[in-house]
């Protein structure tokens, strides 16, 4: 394969991938507690470097590198600012940590603190009514007719009686957390540990997306993608002209 076409194609694929990641970030600019994704890449070694021989290459070609390989997306877990909502069951974590959610026999983790009480009295997520877990790994039962107070430690009380304490956990290696959709994470090979972060009732964490930065990244990525596609077209035309002229000479 033509080396220039290979490098340009690798660049086009890399920037197309990055464009998808940036577009997803922008789509979640208003999603509560959303964490920004970053497209990551690594330089591919040249064929000569992989084979250990340089018979069919030159220093000029070697200095161009071997293109790019896409790596798994990196998630930026930096805490975003908090906004007051006035909702009794709106909770935000000030600092590190995640709420625990029960989904079947699986435990998921989120910083989205939009909660409610379902018909059975369980404290659940607002969107799909999955149970929130306490520090003992149990679901939390509340009386929706009573006023609910949640203090800074996550202790839930109603009518002056302590009901349960929310489980707030964190991870030593957050790069092992995998997004599962709906702003939740699954722990892959890492164990959570309790963390003492402040719980803010009647607050929610805002999205971690800066729309200006993401729009700038989108424009820059689109331009790089267009440049790679233009280079592919130019090289294709050059090869076509070369083949035509060589055919005329040989004829």
What can you tell me about this protein's structure?
This protein is of the alpha+beta class and 251 residues long. The protein has four helices and 17 strands. The strands form seven sheets. The chain has a four-stranded antiparallel beta sheet with strand order 6-5-12-15, with no helix packed on it. A three-stranded antiparallel beta sheet has the order 9-10-11, with no helix packed on it. Strand 9 and strand 10 (155-158) form a beta hairpin. The longest helix has 40 residues, at 211-250.
Uncertain stretches of 5 or more adjacent residues: none
Strand numbers in spatial order across the main sheet? 6-5-12-15
Q: What is the alpha-carbon Rg in Å?
A: 26 Å
Total E-strand runs: 17
Q: What proportion of the residues form beta strands (DSSP E)?
A: 25-35%
SSE order, as H and E? Answer: HEHHEEEEEEEEEEEEEEEEH
Biggest sheet features? 4 strands, antiparallel
Mean pLDDT: 88
**Structural class by SSE content:** alpha+beta
Task: Name its key features.
17 strands; 4 helices; three-stranded antiparallel beta sheet; alpha+beta; 251 residues; four-stranded antiparallel beta sheet
List the helices and strands and how they pair.
Layout (H helix, E strand, L loop, with lengths): L2 H25 L9 E7 L3 H5 L7 H5 L4 E8 L6 E3 L6 E4 L3 E6 L2 E5 L4 E3 L5 E3 L22 E3 L4 E4 L2 E5 L2 E3 L6 E5 L2 E4 L5 E2 L3 E4 L1 E3 L5 H40 L1
Antiparallel strand pairs: 1-2, 3-17, 4-16, 5-6, 5-12, 7-8, 9-10, 10-11, 12-15, 13-14
Helix pairs in contact: 1-4
